Amino acid sequence: MKQFGKILKFELKNYAKNKAFVGITIFLMVAIAIVMFFPRITALFKSGDTSDTTKDLSVMLVKADDPTQADMVKEIFAAAFTDYNVQITDAEISVIKDKITSGDIECAFVMNGATSFTYYVDNLSMYDVNPDIATGVLQQIYQMDAMIGSGMSPEDAAGVMSIQINAQVENLGKDQMQNFFYTYIMIFALYMVILLYGQMVAMSVATEKSSRAMELLVTSAKPINMMFGKVLAACMAGLVQLVAIFGSALVFYNVNKSYWGDNGIINSIFNIPPELFVYMLVFFLLGFLIYAFLYGAISSTVSKLEDINTAVQPVTFLFLFGFMVVIFSMTEGNVDNLLMQLCSYIPFTSPMAMFTRIAMSTVPWYEIAISIAVLIGSTFGIGVLSAKIYRVGVLMYGTTPKIGNIIKAVWKA
Amino acid sequence: MILELRNIEKSFGEKKVLTGVSFKIEGGKAFGLLGRNGAGKTTSIRILMDVFPANSGEVLIDGQPIDYSKIGIGYLPEERGLYPKKIIIDQLAYFAELKGLSLKEAVKSIDYWLERLGMTEYRNKKLETLSKGNQQKIQLITALAHDPDIVILDEPFSGLDPVNAMLLKDVVKEQISKGKIVLFSSHQMSYIEEFCDSIAILNNGVVALHGDLHDIKRNYPRDRLVVRTENPDAIIADFGSACTFMENGNLMIRLSDPCEKKAAMTRLVENYDIDEVKVFEPSLNDIFVEYAGDAAQED
After folding, report:
1. Which of A20, A8, A394, A382 is nearest to A206 (CA)?
2. B199: three-class secondary structure by DSSP
């Protein structure tokens, strides 16, 4: 136990002295500070700016052969597209195209009648909804005209068109829309930390082996102490980094809370239910440990530093598979699909899969309990096994041995 | 204190590495563990240090199974290496702490050894900034800083210049005089001959020869004569195929029975122009080649 404490202390000191580790942590904290202060900074600049804002708006041209239609469309579009400076034009289409490609104007609607138009834009963005808005507006005009034409008074017609539907949603489970962002951030943090620190553990083991410091270490310390010391130090360093980053985000958010107003995404991120934090911590710790043990064990069988990446690839793929399943299920909006349910019990995928289901869906307590119990058991088992592989692996030099040979050697040792 | 390896057997997979390896090492005496590459020296040392267990056999101290929590072992591995990018005092203290010293004790002892080996000026430098010989001296400190009962030195003199080799010799002699068990493993026979009272030669995982070096030499069959002469041809004509030339140009005559040596000597002195004739006494090198050389391996 005393020896384990010394190894843990030594490894932690390595992280504290590691310039990359300290640098990345500080860099991320600064980046988060900038993001969190962003609305305050923009508000600072906006407050002095009272000039005519229409000048800054991008230009949208409207062209119609019939001047009355042109006037009407311009008026309606100006109301519908408040982000644009809507202007009428009677220029040729080729001229309009040139203006768009040269960047003088952003887009143009050329009306081919009351129910037909062509939309011109330089690069159609993925999020460009202008044609949809225009379609909706023109549909409304056509319907209004039709109703008035069939004898309805304009007021009645307007009343029909603007009828409000009173809709109420009563959510009995969780609001996936609201949970999506913070779940995504937490899963992504889990992904980054496990990969980053898993590789760090692998690197640390392989460096000791390739520099032959291992020759002395194996004769000075018990392999189980070495393995657990290294992995727990990485885990603590990872936690410290996460706390520093999320903590600074929370502090800076509270400092600038009033400037964020009712930004739904940001507010949902900072209103994570506390019990979810506890689950995150549990799954983070167990998920981290299980992968760090695997990375440590595998890298102990590698003789040259450059072979690490190839050797740890199967583990990285396994991890990536879990991550992909979770992300696809999240974007698909069904986190309780069969694959996710299966992944919730497999120790290598459950840290992400079960956590996502808890965050975005309603999972019975016993399922969570089973998942965590399986995970704890496997983490302990893999920890012990990896220490055994480590003991055998660190003394194997030459080409990286096959998994079968390692298992045989561990079995016989 | 007597360290004893008794009937050690070890296999890695199908490959048998050690077969019934036994030897004894007394405290206050140095012991040479010899053998060609792959003979099983490092495996024996690792079993002795409990890096991995033997399939069967025992490691005993004064007849009792060794208690690793009580017996300190210092090890200078053949494959040298520490943390190249770490400060010397930090890593030396770490290794000493792993061996059970408190930080304070560790630093005190390391400072003593740094001074003893003339390395104090490098205390707060990174290891990689040192020359190979100096790095080796730092490595030696990891083997000695915790004042171990057993000191295992694997090729301790390789890579050292004559001045540093002398310094290391003094340190080793000091350790021996303190009554410690010192185990050498080396291919440099001259050092083994200089320090070691007893040896074991491993050949293909079997102890081919074990015992007191003087006894081994004394008990070596005294059936060969070394003759220094200006006219070897006449002697060769007389003794025939029993004669061979040695590397230094002397003639060696192998007798069919050691009892014949007096008669043979008389015959040589009376009949031929001889500068010198004596009974052949083998060097450790000769013994090693005989017990661990190709001819021995084929047996």
Report:
1. A394
2. strand
As a whole number of angstroms, the distance between CA B40 and CA A176 comes to 64
pLDDT at A152: 84
Contacts made by residues A264-267, CB under 8 angstroms, sequence distance 24+: A264/A178, A265/A181
| CB contact residues (below 8 A), chain A span 198-227, against chain B | 208, 211-221
- B52·A391 Cβ contact <8 A: yes
**Interface predicted TM-score of the whole assembly (ipTM), two decimals:** 0.79
Residue A171 tokens read as: 């959510």
Closest partner residue to B13 (CB to CB) among A208, A211, A408 is A408
CB A253 within 8 A of CB A219: no
- Strand pairing partners for B58? B6
pTM tops 0.90, yes or no: no
Contact A216 B84 (CB under 8 A): no
Neighbouring CB atoms inside 10 A of A47's CB total 8
Q: What is the pLDDT of residue B189?
A: 84
| Phi (first) and psi of residue A263, to 5 degrees | -65, 105
Comparing CB atoms, the residue among A6, A216, A413 nearest residue B52 is A413
Write the pLDDT tens digit of every residue in B272-288. 888 999 888 888 888 88
The chain B residues in contact with chain A (CB within 8 A) are 12-13, 46, 49, 51-52, 73, 75, 77, 79-84, 90, 94-95, 97-100, 139, 142
Counting one residue from chain A and one from chain B, the pairs whose CB atoms sit within 8 A come to 53
Tens digits of residue pLDDT in B94-104: 999 999 999 99
Cα distances (Å, whole numbers) of residue B196 to A313, B92, B140: 50, 28, 19
**Amino acid identity, position A129:** V
Chain A residues within an 8 Å CB radius of B82: 211, 213, 216
Structure tokens at A38: 């962003």
Integer Cα distance of A337 and A341 in angstroms: 6
CA dist A225 and A230 (Å) reads 8
By three-state DSSP, how is residue A185 classified? helix
Q: Kindly tell me if the per-residue pLDDT of B76 is higher than 70.
A: yes
Give the span between the Cα atoms of B3 and B65, in whole angstroms. Answer: 10
**Nearest residue in chain A measured CA to CA from B13:** A409
Q: How far apart are CA A355 and CA A287, in angstroms?
A: 11
Is residue A166 within 8 A of residue A179, CB to CB? The reply is: no
Query: What tens digit of pLDDT does each residue of A13-46 get?
Result: 988 988 888 999 999 999 989 988 888 888 777 7
- At residue B66, what are phi and psi to the nearest 5 degrees? -65, 135
Tokens of A103: 């960047």
The answer to whether residues B28 and B206 touch, using CB atoms and an 8 Å cutoff, is no
- What's the gap in Å between the CA of B230 and the closest CA on chain A? 54
Q: Please report how the helices A308-332 and A176-210 are oriented relative to each other, as an axis angle in degrees rounded to 10.
A: 180
